[in-house]
Structure formats: C-alpha cells, structure tokens
Amino acid sequence: MGIELLSADNMEEWYFGIQVLGDETVYKGEKFALRIKFGERYPIEYPEVTFVANDQYKPPVHPHIYTNGHVCASILGPEWSPVLNAQSVCITMQSMLASCKKKELYVPRRAPLTHTQAKGQRQLRCACARQPQADALGVPRRCELAPESIS
Domain range spanning residue 138? Predict the structure, then answer.
C-alpha cells in the first residue's frame, strides 16, 4: 500500500492511509490514517496535519506525534514552503515512521523525578528520535512529549 488516498470528498479535508514499508521498522504491517486539513491560506501556510484517532485507527507511538494525533514536524511550521503539497507531507510522515528501528521506555529530560513519580510514568519513544538523528529529520527538539501515566 505505502500511501493511499482514503477520502477527498471535501476539498478542504483529505484522508490518507499510510503504511510504513520495510522490514526494519517497529511499524511494519501497521496502518495509520492521516488527516490533512487545508486552510484558506494554503499553500502559503502549511496545512493542519493529524493522525486519526478513532475506533478504526490509532496514532503511532512516536516522540513527535501526540496521543491525540497532532504531529510535530519542521515542515509543518518554519520549514513549510508553498512548493510542498499533500504528497510531500505523506512521504515525510512515512519516512519519519520508517526511521524508527526499536521502541524503548522514555522519560523526558526534565527535573529529576522521585522514585514514586517515575514508577507510574511510562511512555514509548523511538530510539531513532534521539539527537542528532532527529536533527537530520528536521524535527524540532521542543516537541518531546511529556510522560503519561498508565493505569
């Protein structure tokens, strides 16, 4: 599959299916849905891009994708250019996911946690997102996700 247009009935909001290809990714065989919403100022301004979170699709567990599906990537901000389009956004998301080779527990670099605080906080983070590799993807450092409590 790779990248597939799921719906473009509305000219302002398109849905794409994304499957990460390759044998060495933690997302092998997983399918995700990406929503691209075009604003009035597109292509001058970047579109709103989110991974769909519903009964059928879940956002990928990745340090630059929030649990609600919002994506943190430089092309969806200061690196946006009017020559970019929905295809380039999908390819960037697919490449970002393909670069993850393993998942590991992650606690962000913030003030040290007490043993009690750290015990309940877990989050998976792709090892590939550690600097300087993430810099090569153009992903800003400020988008590290805060740990979430797992009950």
Answer: 3-145
